[in-house]
Design goal:
Elements: H1 5-17, H2 32-48, H3 51-78, H4 80-84, E1 91-93, E2 99-105, H5 110-125, E3 129-135, H6 141-154, H7 159-168, H8 175-184, H9 189-196, H10 199-215, E4 222-225, E5 228-231, H11 236-247
Parallel strand pairs: 2-3
Antiparallel strand pairs: 1-3, 2-4, 4-5
Helix pairs in contact: 6-7, 6-9
Length: about 250
Amino acid sequence: MTRSPLRLLLAAGLCFLAGGAPAQEAPPGFSAAQRAEILGILRQALREDPTILRDALAGLEEADRRDRSAAQRAAIADNAEALFRDAADPSKGNARGDVTIVEFFDARCGYCKQMQPAMDALLRRDPNIRVVLKDLPILGPNSVLASRALLAAQRQGRYVPFYDALLALRTEPTEAVLRQQAERAGLDWARLRRDMDDAAIGARIERNLALAQRLGIEGTPALVIGNTLVPGAIELPALERLVAEARAGR
């Protein structure tokens, strides 16, 4: 697993304390002798109480988490119009709901499929939620094909049933499979296939990809609930907790 910059910095510091790195110039405000004394105190403290290192690491990680969270909240606020108020976006649930969840998904994503039962249960249990659906095809050509088909289905007023069908799909969304699922969902395939190649649909996908990049989203699923960005699939209790926090304005 790749180490975080925080851990790499800590490892470098430990290496220096252990004498494994060449001496550096004294930092401003400290003489070389004072610096040596400080390092001696640190070494002695760590020998006598190794939990100092554990607590320091935990504190640094918590500060890092707070910084990331603050950056994510700022990015959500800066992009609120595109996230929550784009009239072109398809949605599920209550169009006038008091809480909006934005779901970035890939129709081929196994974790997106895994999370769908929890999302559906949330909408059944809480009739005051709106879910905005953002196609984010990042898993290859068939992902792009499926996203184009979904956005083309929106023009026939059948985005949500087609979305439900594709998220339940356990085979690759090839063109033949998309046609089969589209016809089962009551779509005009000939019209759908023409619309899939419309440049406007490609532009919508590009806007979603650019928005995800601005938010620092690196995979699917990714949820925005209130001012919180949630990477990865989560279970129903966590969804309900985050919705309650969003309602409370936290």
